[in-house]
Amino acid sequence: MPLDRSKSTAARRRRAAGPGPVPARPASLADAAVALGGKEVLRGVDLEVRAGEVLSLVGPNGAGKSTLLAALSGDLPTAAGEALLWDRPVGEWSALEAARRRAVLPQAHRVSFPFTVRDVVGMGRAPWAGTGRSGEDEDRIAGALALTESDGFADRPFTSLSGGEQARVMLARVVAQDAGLVLFDEPTAALDLRHQEMVGRLCRGLAAEGRAVVIVLHDLDLAAAYSDRCALLAEGRIEACGPPAEVLAAERLGRVYRQPVTVEADAATGLPRVTPVRTVRDSGPRSGLLDISHG
Amino acid sequence: MTPAEPPPATAPPAPKAPSTTATTSRGPDTRPAAARPRPRRAVTTLLALVLTGLLALGVLVSASNGAFAIPPGDIIDSIAHRLGLGGAPVEGTGESVLWNIRFPRVVLGLLVGACLACAGTLMQGTFGNPLAEPGIIGVSSGAAVGAVAAIAFGLTFAGNWTIALCAFIAGLATVSVVYLLSRSGGKTEVVTLVLTGVAVNGLAGALIGLFIFYADNAEITTITFWQLGSLSQATWPKIFAVAPLAALGLLAAPRYARRLDLLALGERPARHLGVDVERLRLHLIVIVALLTGAAVAVSGVIGFIGLVVPHLLRMAAGPGHRALLPLSTMGGAAVIVWADLAARTAAAPAEIPLGILTALVGSPFFFWLLRRTRRRQGGWA
Q1: pLDDT digit string, tens, across residues B114-144
Q2: Crossing angle for the helix pair B236-252 and B162-182, nearest 10 degrees?
Q3: Nearest CA in chain B to A241
Q4: A143–B19 C-beta distance less than 8 A
Q5: Is the ipTM above a cut-off of 0.95?
Q6: Does the beta carbon of A111 lie under 8 angstroms from any beta carbon of chain B?
Q7: d(CA A170, CA A218)
Q8: 3-class secondary structure for chain A?
Q9: B347-369 burial, b for 16+ CB within 10 Å, e for fewer?
C-alpha cells in the first residue's frame, strides 16, 4: 500500500505540473470499437499516433474517419478495446487535463455570439489560464493568427467572416492551444487551393516542433504530400496504414472508393498523385429523369 | 516525406516560439495585432461609469418622487444621518415614508433587476441563444407556480422564506425541464426553445389558474396583483427573505464568465478546451433558478428585462461574459429602478404594474430580435 500511495502521489504531482514533454506515442487505439446508435461504426482498430509525425486519415464517406478522431479525442467512448492519451485511457483524464494534451478541430464551426476573431483564437488558450504558460498567450495568439493568415481580420466579429475565413480562424484557435497532440477533422474542406497547402505546411510545422498531428483529409494528393503515414479506412476498419506511397495504391483505392483511379509519381516531387479514371463526357448512365425527348 | 523517423518527439514545444518559423511563407511577423489598442476595454469602463451614474441618480430620483415629495438633498442628509455621518432625518412623516416605503421599494427594484438581467445573460450563454430569457422560455412562470402555490395553500413551512423557496424549487424544476426538452444534439434551435417556452408558459398558466380556483378571495387579490409584476408590496422583511438567494446567485455568476465564453463555441469544443460541460450546465441551471426564483417570489413576473438589457449591452461592450455579466447586472438594476419610477408616477395616483410596462416596451424588441435572428439564420428549418 505505501508503495501504491507514493506512486499515485508522484503521478498526481506529475499531472499537476502540466502535461510534460510529448511522449513518443501520445495516443493510440488498441483493438478499439465504437458504436453509434447501436451500430458499430468502428471495429478492431489498432492505431499508433507518433510524436513528430503527421498521420492522415483518408477513406470514403462513412468509413469512420471522424469517429476514429472522436475516439482519439475522448468524445466517443470505446465500446471495446482501449484508447490511450499519454499513458492513460483517454476517458480517465479530466476535461482540463485532456485539453492541455490534445487540441481538436471539429468539422463544423459555430460561434453563438459575435466574438472577434482574436477572442475566438484566445479561447484556445483557456486550458493554460492560471498556469505559468498563460504568459505566452499574446505571442501564441499572434503567432497562430499569422500562421493561418487570419491576422488581416483579427478584429472583425467571427460571425461576419466567410466560411473559409472562419475555418482558418478555428485552425488558429487549435494552433494557439499549444497541445502535444493535434487532431484535425477535415480542416481543408472550406479552403481554397492556397490555404489547403497552407494547412499542409502548418501540419508539417507542428510535427517539426515535436507534436503529433492527426488529420482527416479527402484530398489524397494533400495526404500524400504532407503526411508521414497515411491510414486508409473502409467500413469502420483500417484497410492499410503506412507511408502514403505504399498505402495509396491504385488497385486498393479503386476497391475502397469503388472508383477506378490511376496513381502516378509526380514529375517534380516523386510523390504519388491520384487521378480518378474519368469516363468520356455524355457517355455515363442516363437516369431518364432529365430526358426531354418524350416531349 | 520521410516515413517515420524515430520520433524527435520528447522535446516540449519551445515556449516562446509560436511555430511561425517552421511553416509560414509570409514575411516577418510584424504582429500588428498585439500592438493594436483594445477599444472594447474603454467602452466597458465607460459603460460601467454611465450605468453607475444612472443607478445612483435613479435611486435618488425614485426615492424623492411620489405622492409625498422629498427633496434629494434631504434624502442624502437622512442617509448620512443613519450612517452616523452627521446630516438629519427628514422632517415629519417624510423620514418614515423614505425608510419604510420608498427605500424598500427601490432596493427591491435593484435586487429584482439585477437578478433578472443576470439570469438572462446566463441563460443566453448556456443555451448559446440570444433569445433565451427567463420570461420567454417559461422559467419565470414556472417559479410563479411555486410562489402562487405557497400563497394559495398558505404554506409557511420555512417561515418568511417559504414563498422564495417554493419559487426557487419550481423555477429549478422548470429550467431543467426546458433545458432537457429544447436541446438536441448539443444545441438549442431557436424554434424549439421558443415553442418549449410557449408550452411551459401554457402549463404554468393552467396550474396558476387551478390554484386560484382553490384560493379564497383575499388570496386571489394577492395573487392577481402579484402576477402582473409589481414592486408595490416591497417591505424590508421581503427583501431579507430573497436577498440570500439573490446574493448567492449574483456572487456566483461571474465565476462562470470565462467558461460561458467557451460555451459559445458549442459543447464539444468547450470540452476540448477543458470545460467540464456537464457540471457547468448543472451549476448554471441552479444559478438561473436561484436568480429567477428570488426575483419572481417578491415581484411576480416581470418580463423582458433579461432579454433587452444583456442584448443592448452585448452590442455595446461585446459578447465577452467577463464584462457582460457585471454590466448586465448593473444595467438590469438601473432599468428597473427607472421603469418602476415611471410605473408609479406616469398615471399617478394610480400605478401601472411594472410587469405590464416592461412587456409593453420589451415585446416589440423581442419581435425585432426574432426577425433579425430569423434573417441571419435564413429562416427556421
Answers
A1: 999 999 999 999 888 888 888 888 888 899 8
A2: 40
A3: B3
A4: yes
A5: no
A6: yes
A7: 19
A8: CHHHHHHHHHHHHHHHCCCCCCCCCCEEEEEEEEEECCEEEEEEEEEEECCCCEEEEECCCCCCHHHHHHHHHCCCCCCEEEEEECCEEHHHCCHHHHHCCEEEECCCCCCCCCCEHHHHHHHCCHHHCCCHHHHHHHHHHHHHHHHCCCHHHCCCEHHHCCHHHHHHHHHHHHHHCCCCEEEEECCCCCCCHHHHHHHHHHHHHHHHCCCEEEEECCCHHHHHHHCCEEEEEECCEEEEEECHHHHCCHHHHHHHHCCCEEEEECCCCCCEEEEECCCCCCCCCCCCCCCCCCC
A9: eeeeebbbbebbbeebeeebeeb
Nearest 5°: the CA angle B154, B176, A95 is 140
Q: How many residues belong to chain A?
A: 295
**Nearest chain A Cα to B271, which residue?**
A95
Where in chain A are all domains bearing CATH 3.40.50.300? 21-101+180-192+209-278
Q: Do A146 and B7 touch (CB under 8 A)?
A: no
Pairing of strands A212-216, A54-58: parallel
Dihedral class, residue B352 (left if φ above 0, else alpha if ψ from -120 to 50, else beta): beta
Domain B109-374 has CATH 3.30.230.20: no
Which pLDDT value is given to residue A55?
97
To probe the interface with B, which of A111, A113, A116, A247 has the most B CB atoms within 10 Å? A113
CATH superfamily entry for domain A21-101+180-192+209-278: P-loop containing nucleotide triphosphate hydrolases (3.40.50.300)
Calpha distance B76→A12 (Å, rounded): 58
Radius of gyration, alpha carbons of chain B: 24
Domain definitions of chain B by residue range: 109-374
- DSSP lists the bridge partners of residue A262 as A275
Q: What is the DSSP letter of B183?
A: E
Give, for all 295 residues of chain A, the pLDDT tens digit: 344 444 455 555 444 557 888 999 999 999 999 998 888 899 999 999 999 999 999 999 999 999 999 999 999 999 999 999 998 999 999 999 999 999 999 998 888 888 999 999 999 999 999 888 888 999 999 999 999 999 999 999 998 899 999 999 999 999 999 999 999 999 999 899 999 999 999 999 999 999 999 999 999 999 999 999 999 999 999 999 999 999 999 999 999 999 999 999 888 888 889 999 987 666 556 666 665 555 4
- Rounded to whole angstroms, the Cα distance separating B114 from B120 reads 10
Residue B308 in grid coordinates: 433587452
Quote the pLDDT of residue A214. Answer: 97
Q: Is the pLDDT of residue B237 over 70?
A: yes
Please name the amino acid found at residue A46: D
CB of A22 closer than 8 Å to CB of A210: yes
pLDDT over 60 (residue B34): no
User: Would you call A53 an interface residue with chain B, using a CB distance cutoff of 8 Å?
Assistant: yes
Biggest CA pair distance of chain B: 93
**Contact residues, chain A, for B276 at CB < 8 Å:** 94-96
Is the minimum CB–CB distance between A34 and chain B shorter than 8 Å?
A: no
